[in-house]
Amino acid sequence: MPYPELMIAPMRRELTSLGLRELRTPEEVDAFLEENRERTAMVAINSMCGCSAGSMRPAVALALKHTTLPDARATVFAGQDIEATARVREYITEYPPSSPSIALFKGGRVVFMLQRHEIQGRSPEEIAADLTRAFDVHCSPATAAEG
Fold this sequence. Notes:
CATH class: Alpha Beta
Largest sheet: 5 strands, mixed
Order of helices and strands: HEHEHEHEEHH
Strand order of the largest sheet: 1-3-2-4-5
Strand content: 15-25%
Structural class: alpha/beta
CATH topology: Glutaredoxin
CATH architecture: 3-Layer(aba) Sandwich
Mean pLDDT: 92
Number of strands: 5
CATH superfamily: Glutaredoxin
Helix content: 40-55%
Number of domains: 1
Shape: globular
């Protein structure tokens, strides 16, 4: 059963206020990943998990201040947007389901993944450092990033 929207609305806003496109249906997930097949696309799988997601969301905010960014950025909410989250996970076949987590796609495939066990117990700064290293490796610094 999904969480009441009133409970998770502030957690959604933490990422959408950063410009991440909210994907709430499987069709929106498919469209986002298809639109960005030839580009870099980050998908943050948000969640209610207080400790891990409470570090993941601020880490995304810090990482998005970096000079090199993914071309497109989106988010789904595990436990709420159940079908959309399941669809994202169909694209992340080489990793077990994990929330929160962050996947970076390039050329239609996952090139970097931060799973819950790599987020849990770490500071937003440490998580952001992992993300920015991945951005430096996989994203173009000259790219005009969009949500």
